[in-house]
Recover the amino acids of this structure.
């Protein structure tokens, strides 16, 4: 029912009965690995068009589905500009409105970027350590 409701909310026809849907997943061999998130499997529409129907779906990973939905599509100039503007300053220290203070055994920094530069680490390493509370790192 959840998949059917998600399709309806997106304006996409869902032509499976529950029995057909279940049998399709059993036949795919991926019933136990289906779901949301990385490495999980989903029902993908061919070329990301048309209804969810037996003739129009294949089984693939969520990552593949995310890539396929953009294939052959181009963004308008206005859309590209809007995206560019939304990213400006995002990784520029205190200009980022979502920046969090970082604490570690080595001190306090106003941003993860600042901590990474001072400690000779990558930004992703500092962010991971804070998110997972590793090696004494934390967000405030």
């Amino acid at each position: 029912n959840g998949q059917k409701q998600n399709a309806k909310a997106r304006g996409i026809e869902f032509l499976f009965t529950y029995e057909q849907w279940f049998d399709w997943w059993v036949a795919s061999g991926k019933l136990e690995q289906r779901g949301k998130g990385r490495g999980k499997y989903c029902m993908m529409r061919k070329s990301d068009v048309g209804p969810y129907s037996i003739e129009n779906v294949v089984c693939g990973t969520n990552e593949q589905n995310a890539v396929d939905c953009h294939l052959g599509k181009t963004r308008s100039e206005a859309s590209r500009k809007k995206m560019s503007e939304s990213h400006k300053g995002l990784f520029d220290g205190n200009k980022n409105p979502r920046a969090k203070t970082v604490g570690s055994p080595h001190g306090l920094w106003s941003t993860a970027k600042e901590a990474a530069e001072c400690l000779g680490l990558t930004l992703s390493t500092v962010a991971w350590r804070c998110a997972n509370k590793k090696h004494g790192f934390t967000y405030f």
In short: The longest strand covers residues 41-45. The chain has a mean pLDDT of 87. The helical segments are 2-9, 18-28, 62-68, 77-87, 112-119, 123-131.
